[in-house]
Each structure stands twice: as structure tokens, then as C-alpha cells.
Amino acid sequence: MKTITSVAVVLLLAAATNLVAQGMLPLKLELPKPMFVGTPKTIKSANLEPARKGKPRPPVMVPKGVENVAEDMEITSSDSYPIIGDLELVTDGDKEGADGSYVELGPGKQYVQIDLEETRQIYAIVIWHFHSQARVYKDVVVQLADDEDFITNVRTVFNNDHDNSAGFGIGKDKEYIETFAGRPLAVKGLKAQYVRLYSNGSTSSEMNHYVEVEVYGK
Amino acid sequence: MRSFIYRSGFALIVLVALFVRVVQLDQRVLHNDEANQIVRAGRLLEGDSYRYDPEEHHGPTLYYLALPLAWLTAGREFAATSEWTYRLLPALCGVGVLLLLLLLWDGIGRGAVLAAAALMAASPAMVYYSRFFIQETLLLLFTVGAITCGWHYCSRRTAPRAIATGVFLGLMHATKETCIIAYACMGAALLIVVAFKVKSGLTLDLKLTCRHALYMALAALGVASILFSSFGVNPAGIWHSFATYLGYVHKGLGENSDHVHPFTFYLRMLIGQRSGGLFWSEWVIMLPGAIGMLLVATSSRLIKQVDRGLGRFLVFYTLLMTLAYSLIPYKTPWCMLSFLHGWIILAGIGITGLFNVSRHPLARIIVLVLLAGGMGFLARQVQRTSFRYGADARNPYAYSHTVSDHLNLVQRINDVTALQAAGRQTPIAVVTNPEDAWPLPWYLRAYPNTGYWNDVASLPAPFAPALIVASLDREAEVATLTGERYISEYWGLRNEVLLALYIRRDLWDRFMESRQP
Q1: Which of A172, B5, B167, B432 could be bridged to B471 by S-S, CB 3.0 to 4.6 A?
Q2: Residue in A99, A170, A202 closest to B276 by CB
Q3: Do the chains contact at A85 and B500, CB–CB below 8 Å?
Q4: Residues with Cβ < 8 Å from B318, sequence gap 6 or more?
Q5: What is the chain B residue with the closest CA to A169?
Q6: What is this structure's pTM?
Q7: Among B500, B477, B462, B443, which Cα is nearest to B34's?
Q8: What is residue A49's DSSP assignment?
Q9: Is the confidence metric ipTM above 0.85 for this complex?
Q10: Hey, is the C-beta of A210 within 8 angstroms of any chain B C-beta?
């Protein structure tokens, strides 16, 4: 087992070195202050990422020169009139977990959609739903498309809906506990103008929340 | 004509109060405490006898009064009852409190009664806990009953009025142990009022007063004894109903309790606080309540329809109750109903005073517009606290509440078992610490093959239940037991507390097949 782990680590390092050699660098994020660190209790599940116990995630590798192309971009949503906050909060650059930094969408399956204004090559998306308490958001699905109605060239880049309750097929990604570090997703340079993020309530309430979404691309 | 308008206004307020207390009564997920109380009531419904437990769960009125409503709406089978069956009782008690205010018509004036009824109908705390199956709204009803009957006894001393007051005092005792705080505050406030009256020349017929006091005490003890003894089946319950206070002293002091809160806990909740980006407050009640207190304290002419003795009693009683509950370290938000009703009646008096100070028609219109604005604010608070955020941790009244995601866990169990030949007979194991088992015993009441264990070692072997629900502190043991034969999911129980659901893989595969388009 140790041998397999060692080989895997060496291969990963080699892959990372190879990516750096190709001009790929670890994505550096500006993180908000921690309001909830780690997980309150040991959580293990077939459908939940293992607890990180305060350790950072492995970095997402992105090419040199990428930037957050979502900042201050127009946001639309399945809930056009949020009770708390405005949709603009999703891309306003404020990732703090305090009140006033998040938008609350209505109950059940809801989405926010970011219009990048032009087709971008996307390498990473980072999501902060709500990180002042430990909770798991359900049916997190992230899609890219060329049109605002999500008809043309729709690609799903993340799906942790393990029972297909959101209707986009069974997701292979794991659920995760929200932390101040957000959840970075690697996107492999796919081209798209629109990014849509779904969720279906959380383990704390049926409401949906977004503190910030960043889209790194060129 | 004026009388007709007042009566119609009161009737309208009662209808609105009833509506907000019963609409969507089954929508909010059950609180741990509600489920506990419901399961106890359910046992009584199915024929088990009731025995008072001096350690926990409070008095018997809640269970006994739930029975007739359950018989009428669902029959005698626990599994056939719903949240509606049980929550209807506190909802009706909440409306009953409004009706009892009518008995104060000649004590504080009909304007004050009308205003107090409107505030009682729209108070977010009153509405929220009138939709909550615990003892609090019953205690409130009996407390207001004791005060109103006591007032009527003071205005004309007759034996039936003394007995009626005694019955309500006895029902308070048979509802919740905290009635002792209300007794003490009522007694102290009464002594202060009598002291004022003696100073201004009051004479008491001591012989008559003692006789009526005896009637009152006998009525109180009689009612409480019947209920605590389970209608004579368990006479020890009567003694236990007094002995229980030894335990409750320690509880009140907050020993070994998670519910110790600062002095300002209740007042912050009522005056106003920000939580989760929202403002939660009942200042629309507290501000006119404080004005009402000032008007009574200064014997203002603006409230000449308020009986001075009753006014003073309400001021001292409310202040003492607020102080007592704030001083006790053990605090839960529903306890504040015990003094909030005093603030509401005084707010009714305060609003009458404000209305009387504005003699000019334009000034009265301005007061009415302000009142309408205040009622609008309360209505919005009610919509948030009792409906949209009914089970949300940001709602200050949803104290340690079950999260709505728990209903998704129950739905998953229902969906998976519906595909089994065994259906509701499917074996389910719940392996949790005692706190995290609730409110599942309510939601799984239709599954007779559900077992509850505190650890995996206690599970019978060999045992491979179709479904296992585990609290996270038992999860490692359960995961060892289940291995790869089960898939697991996480569902919310309370804020930041999760439950793991293990589904045997064959059931899961069948469930997923059923979801294929």
C-alpha cells in the first residue's frame, strides 16, 4: 500500500513538474478570513470528500496569465429576487463569511449564471457558498455553455448529485463541506461565455447561498 | 354603533390569529422536543397509561388535552396522526389567550383590549410557539386565565370566581414546573398593589378572604392532583409534582446545561438583533409596552379607563417576571411567553394612551398610520419566523431546531422502502447517541421494525438491516460493520449536526434503477 502511495505521489509530482514546464502554475487564491476551520466531527462517506483537518487542498494548475474573468460580471439567477443580498454579491470580490457578503436564493434547486461577456478559455472555477458554518450543499452542478439559455455546447464540469435528483445525470464528484478556502474546480481550458452553478439546498436549510464565485481564464 | 365596530374588530383579529396559527401547520420539520412530547402523547393515545416523570417532560395537561383532538382528527392509531393533529392544540390555546383578554374589558378598557389582542395575534413569538407542540402555550393560556379570573374575583369577591381562579392556578401547576415563578411574581405584585390600596383606605373582610383563599387552594390542588395522579391511577404523581422542584432548582441554575445564556438573552431577542443578514425584533410591542408602564406608573389621565389596581398589578407582575426569567441562567426562548403577555397587555394600554393624547383628527390618523406600519412590521416578522425561516438557525425562535434537510432523509427512507416487498416492514436500525435519535421516532412511527441503539455493540448479531441511520460519533463503528455492502449519504439533523444514512447496496441499486428515465 505504501509503495502504491509513494508511486502515486511521485507520478503526481512529475505531472505537476511537467505542467509547470509547460507554463502551468499553481492557481493562487486570495482567501477570506476563516470563520469555520476544518470539520467539526470526523466525516467519512462514499459520497463525501474526506475531511481535510485544516490542510489545504492540492492546488489547481493553471497557465500563466490567467485572471478572474468573472469579477463584476453580470449575474442572473433562477431566483431573480433574493430575500437576502443581491446577485451582484456573487462576483463582487468579497469572499468574507460575514452577514452582508452573501446572497440567499429561494428553496430547492436554484442556479446562478455568470455572463463572461465574451468567450473565454476557462481553467478553474472557485465556489464559496457559505463558510461561516459547517454545511454540505446538495446537488452542486457546474455547467458551461455558449449561449445564455444553455442549449448550445453545454458541458458539465462538476456534478456531485449522486442520486440524479437534479436531473443532470448521476454525478461522479463528491460532496464537500464548505470552508473559507472555497471549492476550486479544475476546468482544463474549456471555452465558454456562460457559467451556470446549481445547488439544491444544504444540510442546514433548503435555501441556497453564494458568497463568491471566481472563474479563472483568459 | 361603536360597540358593533369594536366587536367586529375583535372578531376579525381572532380570525386572523386563528389563520396564522393553523395555516401550513405541518410544514415545519418537528423540533426534537416536539417529537419527544408527541411520542409520549402517542403512547397515551394507543392505550398506555400516563405516569408523571419528575425528571423530565413537564406536566400532564399537554398529553391529556391532545387526546380529544387526536380522536377527532385521526382516531386512536398513533401512526395515523400527523403534525397537524398535535400542533392544533397549542394553536387553539394561542387563540384562547386572545379570547381571555375579553375578560379584561372592564379592567383596562375595550380600546386596550382590542390593541392588546391585535398585538397578541401578530406577535412573532406568540405565533411561533402557538405552532409548537410543547407546554408553553398551555401554560400561557392558564396563566392569563388565572390573572383574568383573579381580576374578576378582586372586583367582586364570590366563591365561584375564587374557584375559577384556583382551577387555572392548578392547571398551571399541572402544565409546567416554571409556574412557580409566575406564582411568586403574581403574589409579590398583588402584595404591592394591596399595600398601595391599604394606604388609600382599603379594608378587607379577613374571614371571607380566608374562606375564598381556601376554596382557591382546594380547587388548584384538586385539579392538579387529578391530573398528576393520572386520574387516580398513580397517586405518587401528586407527591412527585412537588418533589420535582428539587431537581428543577439545579436545572434553573444551569448546572450541566447547554442552555445557559446571559441576562440580556430575552430582552435582546424582543428589542432587536441581527442574525444572518436579517433583523429580528418585537420592538413594536416593547415600545408601547414601556409607554403603557409609564402611563400606569404616573396614573396618567390618558388611561382613565384602566383600573389603577389592575394596571399596577400588571406593571409589577410583568417587570418581576421579566427580571426573574432574565436572572435565571437556564434560558430557552419559548420561556419568554411567560412574561411577554404582560408586555402585550401593557402595550395595549400604551396604545390607548397614545390614541387619547392625539385629540385632533389628523393626529389620530397619524397614530393609526403608525400602528398600521407597526402591524405590517410584525406581519413580516411572523412570515419570516413562522414560515420562511421556521426551522432556520438564523431564526432566534428556532432554538436548536431540526433542519428541514431531515425531511429529505425521511423522504429517502420512504422512497427506498417503497420499492421493497416488505415496504414499511423493512428493518431499520438507528444507531445514535440519545440526543441525535430525535425526531426520528416520530417520522419512522409507521415502521414497526425500527430499532434504536446507542452503540453498534448492542446490535443483535447477525443483523443486516436494510437501512442504518447513524450519528457521526457512532459512524466509524457503523462503517466497520457495513463495509462495502452499504452506500452512505449525509443528511442534516440540526445546524452543523449531520446524520449518516447507510443503504444496503441491493436496495440502493433498485432505487437508482427506479430513477432512470
Answers
A1: B432
A2: A99
A3: no
A4: B289, B293, B339, B342, B343, B345, B346
A5: B516
A6: 0.86
A7: B443
A8: P
A9: no
A10: no
* d(C-alpha A153, C-alpha A141), whole Å: 16
The widest CA-to-CA distance across chain B, in whole angstroms, is: 86
Per the CB < 8 Å rule, is A100 touching B277? yes
Query: Cβ B405–A99 below 8 Å, yes or no?
Result: no
Partner B, chain A 128-167, Cβ-Cβ below 8 Å:
133-136, 138, 162-164
| Chain B contact present for A22, CB below 8 A | no
Residue A152 · residue A145 · CB < 8 Å: yes
Give me B219's grid cell.
Answer: 380547587
Could you tell me if A101 and A95 are in contact, meaning their C-beta atoms sit under 8 angstroms apart? yes
Q: Cα dihedral sign for B60, B90, B397, B435?
A: positive
B34, B439 contact by CB (below 8 A): yes
Distance in angstroms (rounded) separating the CA atoms of residues A58 and A13: 11
**Domain extent listing, chain A:** 2-217
Q: Who has greater pLDDT, B461 or A45?
A: B461
The pairing of strands A141-145 and A183-200 is: antiparallel
pLDDT in tens, B319-372: 999 999 999 998 999 999 999 999 999 999 999 999 888 878 888 899 899 999
Rg over alpha carbons for chain A, rounded to the nearest Å, is 17
Beta-sheet pairing, A67-68 with A24-26 = unpaired
For chain B, say whether A202 makes contact (Cβ under 8 Å). yes
Element (H, E) at B469: strand B467-471
For chain A, report the end-to-end CA distance as a whole number of angstroms.
41
Phi and psi for B277 in degrees, rounded to 5? 80, 5
**Per-residue confidence (pLDDT) for residue A38, from 0 to 100:** 30
When pLDDT is averaged across residues A126-148 and rounded to a whole number, the result is 91
The Cα B87–Cα B483 span in angstroms is 41
For B464-494, what is each residue's pLDDT tens digit?
A: 889 999 988 888 888 888 888 998 888 999 9
Please, are residues B22 and B91 in contact by the beta-carbon 8 Å criterion? yes
Distance CA B290, CA A108 (A): 42
Predicted pLDDT at B100: 97
Which residue, B270, B273, B275, B317, is CA-closest to B293?
B317
User: Is B496–A83 a contact, with Cβ atoms under 8 angstroms apart?
Assistant: no
Assign domain A2-217 to its CATH architecture. Answer: Sandwich (2.60)
As beta bridge partners, residue A128 has A212
Query: What whole-number distance in Å separates Cα of residue A58 and Cα of residue B244?
Result: 58
Higher pLDDT, A36 or B504: B504
Residue B405 to residue A206, Cβ atoms within 8 A: yes
Q: CA-CA distance, B459 to A103, in Å (whole number)?
A: 45
pLDDT of residue A4: 47
Nearest-by-CA chain B residue for A97: B276
- Closest Cβ opposite residue A204 in set B403, B473, B511: B403
CB atoms within 10 A of CB B412: 18
Nearest residue on chain B to A133, alpha-carbon basis = B496
Residue B501 distance to chain A (closest CA, Å):
10
Of the given ranges (A171-175, B174-178, B264-268), which has the lowest mean pLDDT? A171-175
Q: Which of B9-13, B86-90, B422-426 bottoms out in mean pLDDT, i.e. has the lowest? A: B422-426
Query: Which of A179, A204, A211 should one mutate to test binding to chain B, selecting the residue with the greatest count of B CBs within 10 A?
Result: A204
Asked if B477 is an interface residue toward chain A (Cβ–Cβ < 8 A), one would say no
Pick A46's closest partner by Cβ from B274, B487, B498.
B487
Cα–Cα–Cα angle for A177, A179, A182, rounded to 5 degrees: 100
Most B CBs within 10 Å: which of A203, A210, A211, as the mutation test of the B interface?
A: A203
A83 contacts B488? CB cut-off 8 A: no
